[in-house]
Each structure stands twice: as C-alpha cells, then as structure tokens.
Specification:
Blueprint lengths: L8 E4 L1 H6 L1 H7 L4 E4 L5 H8 L5 E5 L1 H6 L6 E2 L27 E8 L7 H10 L5 E8 L7 E7 L7 H11 L3 E9 L9 E2 L1
Parallel strand pairs: 1-2, 1-3
Antiparallel strand pairs: 3-9, 4-9, 5-7, 5-8, 6-7
Helix pairs in contact: 5-6
Length: 194
C-alpha cells in the first residue's frame, strides 16, 4: 500500500479539491493536483492504474465501488461542509418517505437598487417563511442585473408562498417557481482519499 509520502498526483472535481485544500497543502505539498469531471472519476482512475502513485478525493461510497484503499478520511477543511445532490429524470422515482420539503424559486430584480434584496426578504420574513439558501447569479443582460436563487424550507402551499410571490411581483420582481421537492438528509462519515 502506498503511504501519503508516495503520492505524486491527487485527482478530483474542483469543488472537492477546494473543500480539502488546507489538508492537501499540508500533507501533500508536492503532489500535482489534477482537476477532473467528478469525484467518482478519481477513484475509478486510481483503481484502473494501481501501480501509479495517485490518490483521489472522493466519497466513502466511491471507495466501495472501485478497487481502492482509503489512505485518510475526513480531510475536508470545514467539518460542517455538505454537498447537495439532486436526482433528475423523466420518470417517477419511488423514494423513501420524508417529512421535509423545499421549494426553490428564481427571483429576478427589475434593476439593481438600494433595498431590492431587503424587499424580497421582507416578503418572506413577515409571513414567517424560513429560507435556507440565497444565492445571487448575474443575469448576463447587463452590469448590476441579478437573479436570486432562493431555497424555501417548505412545500408550495395555497396561501403563504403565493402571497409572497404576488407581493414581489407587485414590486416589479419576476418570480419563477423552479419546483418543490422532498428533502433527504443522509449522514456522511466524512470525505475519503484513496
């Protein structure tokens, strides 16, 4: 088995590398970092080339799929770091029961002005609607034009969310409902390097 000092190259998706950068810098300072398309591709490549001094930053699940050995676990820089995964497709998925749902909306500002985000947040706040994520994205239509992707901690209802959306639309915001979906939280035993 190789030891960490034998590793010459570490492969993974750029996000996984970024989330373990401190560990890699401290423990593998001379290893080449290679960015690849997914965290699953790294352990596949390591498993296909067992004689190469390579490692991958990957999930614990990937180490069970490919013939690799775990050299170190829990190498993430922030222990409360989570990665979100979604399942998409054109057929119905039979999934376990959950009592949690989220709704995601895209809010587009009519223009950038002082208090714009406050007005969006106020429409949710006074209705006591909990938000779990707000992410700004440029619309690419001009400097200062943004969309906000907002995750709401509830399913679409008939009163509260439509009321919040109507309030924002009356102020000139465009609202696009991206969907309501069940939330499943799986405890992860930590990041794994192999």
């Amino acid at each position: 088995l190789p030891s960490l000092s034998d590793i010459k190259k570490v492969m993974s998706h750029p996000q996984a590398i970024a989330q373990s950068r401190d560990y890699l810098r401290e423990n593998l300072p001379n290893a080449e970092i290679e960015y690849i398309g997914s965290t699953a591709e790294g352990p596949r490549l390591v498993g296909e080339h067992p004689d190469e001094p390579w490692a991958a930053v990957c999930s614990l699940t990937a180490t069970k799929i490919y013939p690799v050995t775990i050299l170190r676990g829990e190498i993430e820089d922030k222990k409360n770091n989570y990665t979100r995964f979604v399942v998409v497709g054109n057929m119905e998925l039979i999934a376990p029961e959950t009592n949690r749902s989220k709704t995601t909306v895209l809010v587009t500002l009519p223009s950038d002005f002082p208090g714009a985000l406050y007005q969006v947040l106020a429409a949710f706040a006074w209705r006591k609607i909990n938000l779990s994520r707000i992410e700004s994205r440029p619309t690419k239509t001009g400097l200062g034009n943004y969309h906000f992707v907002i995750d709401i901690e509830q399913e679409m209802d008939e009163i509260l969310l439509p009321g919040a959306f109507a309030e924002m639309e009356a102020l000139g915001f465009q609202i696009r409902l991206m969907g309501t979906y069940p939330v499943y939280i799986k405890e992860v035993v930590g990041s794994t390097s192999s």
